[in-house]
Fold each of these.
Amino acid sequence: MFGNYLIGLREGLEASLVVCILIAYLVKTDRRDRLAPVWLGIAAAVVLSMAFGAVLQFGSSSLTFEAQEALGGSLSIIAVGLVTWMVFWMRRTARHLRAELHGKLDAALAMGTLALVVTAFLAVGREGLETALFIWAAVQATDDGVRPLVGAALGLLTAVVLGWLFYRGAVRINLAKFFTWTGAMLVVVAAGVLAYGFHDLQEAGWLPGLHSTLFDISSTIPADSWYGTLLKGVLNFQPDPTALQAAVWALYLVPTMYLFFRKSAGSAGSAPRPAGPAPTGAVAADAVGD
């Protein structure tokens, strides 16, 4: 549940910051009359993301077991790839996000209402589709359709509240540190999803080694115990992984974490902004560079 809360919080906060920047820019440039198309694009992105999640969930239920495992494993690998890209992309471009969005919004304002709708839709839709895919993959990995969704919903709700507080100027946090540590935790979660995705492909018969168990500590950490459930929900831990699962987990986690923290350390060094209140509508945009 915590892993899915983290996914919802991380992805939701990115989308919330994008919305805050777009709205704050229109408000600060006295273009409130253009807010409606932006909200329309945001609403369309949310609906598309929910529809995509529903198609994944209900569309896969009509497939055979082998096809379900093949689809789940393939989409899990794709989801991990997207989330990994997102983690590194956000770490690299967070400081320039405001200027990039302002440039796109200026171009859309010059082109007309439809361009505004499309700009807002694309800015939020990418985050929404990534969130839907990764949460679906995480739900499949935990074999629990309730707690992961509750965790993700709570994470998204927290992100919406934080986004509103950013906009109102009530909260300032160091987003560079936030995205660094949540990104690192997401890499750990992604490693578990990737390993389980390969296990799904083994069950589908696409990969060998389904019965080549590396170790089995089910008697020490029963899958139905509270701590087994906790480890499963947070880290996608499996007490009896196959050798391929364990190898994939290690080969993804170790180099990815190394590259992530090396890049994070290399991007640090800019002088911190002084703390203090900011005008309404400007905080969200300014905070992205913190």
Amino acid sequence: MGSEDAGGDDDGGPGLTRADFRRGALIALGLTAAGVLLGLLWLWLAPRVPLISDGKAVYFKDSEGEEAIAADGTFVLIAAGFGLLTALAVFLLFRRGGIAVVVGTVVGALLGSIVAWRLGVWLGPTSDVPAHARAVGAGKVFEAPLQLRAKGALMIWPLMAAAAHLALTAFFGPRDPAETSPPL
């Protein structure tokens, strides 16, 4: 059992090398950090949900408003765009697929989505609605906290990135040489 067995195949075999693991980890770290940008965009672009207090209870200012669901939709649309862009960036940087690249992309995009969600909630309006209502006073309009109600939206970025990377690799990736059979 030599050093080649521990670090992967050096003869071009299907094993993973240390370079593959580093590449996957680098992609995952980069996409996790990109979650900050997604979170800031979501915070900036998501519609605000107006609330109003009568001094005893807090109500939606517009009971038929769609702002709450639109915040989820905004996250989904931005995350889908991030999935396409990051898949393109990863493909252009590495020009190939491989399990380490795909796993790094999916894990990084999922962690980036979680970072974006938590950052948007943290930087958004306070989540202590009763205290906020008391602070602004009765009859005053204030913003509800930014929430992601559909937690499945966290999967949009990784799923879109994986699908787009697969398509890019299938259409534009390197091809295996065609094997020719010996003549009979």
Amino acid sequence: MGFEQLKLGMKVEIVLSDEEESPKLVSQFEGTCSDGTYYVSAPIYGGKIYPISVGNILDVYFVEKENFYKFKAKVLDRSRKSAISLLKIKALDEIKKIQRREFFRFECMISVNYRVVDSKKAVQDKDRSFKNTITKDLSGGGLCIKIEEKLNVGNIIECELFLNDSYKVVFLGKIVRITECEAGKGKYKYEAGVLFQKIDDKSREKIISYIFQEQRKLIKKI
């Protein structure tokens, strides 16, 4: 994949290469310069613009057609345009396709319906009804849901995720982690980490866009 295929508004995840415990930060492409440099929005973390300095080295991750890509970049400048804080970056190497599933996890409580499907065929069980619950967090690679029953690692579940009143994301996910909730802390007994197994590009982009928009709402409250 070449840099000419990077699109305005494409959502990305940023990690500071030169910061030992850098969080995963959500950003997006905001423009291309004639000299081959790029503008990305300054990422938001914990409701605030994350402090990234000129000279910082970044690992930039993004999704295109269900493939995961990465390139390394250097921050050349900081600026502001139309109330959006921007970083000017320069790529330090070529875009590489990678095997990666852990995108930025946004803590949120969103309504989600789920039901276990045939793990071998990954087909819906029409006789099994959906159960409603909520998410603990959400990312471009999966989500964590709170559940009352104990499911098994490896189970395939069909989910209906309600991002807002007008859009429902339907996907198949694989349970990769089950942890017990602290006793006496609400009705949910377990948390299940779910990796997307079958989800279309539009739905994944909707999820990443939702995360980015919610982060922007948080910064406006400050």
